[in-house]
Amino acid sequence: MDDQALPSLSSGPVREILSAVRSGLLGWLKGQLAAMVIIGVLWGIALFLVLLGAVGALGIPLLATVMFPAFFRYELSGIYELTSRSS
Asked: What is the pTM of this model?
């Protein structure tokens, strides 16, 4: 079998292509990881605000009037993040 029939992985163009593919995949993975972290933080904040709002609704109505609008703001921001990432 002829060794020159198949290009070796050490040849210039093949190595450049594989390097570009690897760099692209790593960049994509970094972006996806950042998006997951951001969405997780937003949902964590929203859950915290829901719990505070529930405590406020049961005990102190003034606190509830502050917490419920904040919860809806974070919820809408999380929905916006989810929909902007998918399109």
From this structure: 0.42
